[in-house]
Specification:
Shape: elongated
Distance between the termini: 55 Å
Helix content: 55-70%
Structural class: mainly alpha
Strand content: under 5%
């Protein structure tokens, strides 16, 4: 597997145009992965590197970032790139939450009840539906969520947003 990771890193280095790195150093691999995340033409090679990545924390961090950068139809591929079932479950939940954010951004009504704090925070910052924002302003899990939703609700209502 180490030889396979060496090959995957070499492919990424070619995409990024970087010099050789110490493949045994997760910090150097992470820096390479970060550079590759900004280059859509490197994403396939990055996905292969994630499949072979021996550090679950590094692999999961890459996948979580790529979930937010990728179109909805590519998210499941990134989830499946993780070798750990536990990490896949967490990443799948994040992919689902990003789908809820996509729906909210498209003006669809979403149900904010029983959602993670991560999702509540983003809905409070991004939602345009006054009903969603009113719910979060009143019943959000944290003061931060309630405050952000209250502020966003004022903006939405002053702009004539949906109620």
């Amino acid at each position: 597997m180490t030889k396979d990771l060496d090959n995957a890193v070499s492919a990424l280095l070619a995409h990024v145009g970087a010099q050789a790195i110490d493949v045994n150093d997760e910090h150097e691999r992470w820096s390479l992965y970060q550079a590759a995340m900004g280059l859509p033409q490197a994403w396939q090679a990055l996905e292969e590197a994630v499949r072979l990545e021996r550090d679950d924390a590094v692999a999961t961090s890459v996948v979580l970032e790529m979930l937010s950068r990728s179109p909805a139809d590519a998210r499941e591929r990134w989830v499946r790139a993780l070798s750990s079932a536990e990490k896949r479950q967490f990443a799948r939940q994040r992919a689902d939450e990003l789908g809820v954010l996509d729906a909210a951004a498209a003006g669809e009504q979403v149900q904010p009840a029983n959602r993670s704090r991560w999702l509540q925070e983003r809905l409070a910052e991004q939602a345009t539906d006054a009903g969603v924002l009113a719910y979060l302003a009143r019943d959000g899990d944290t003061k931060r969520v309630r405050r952000a939703a209250t502020e966003r609700l004022r903006v939405v209502r002053s702009a004539g947003g949906s109620s």
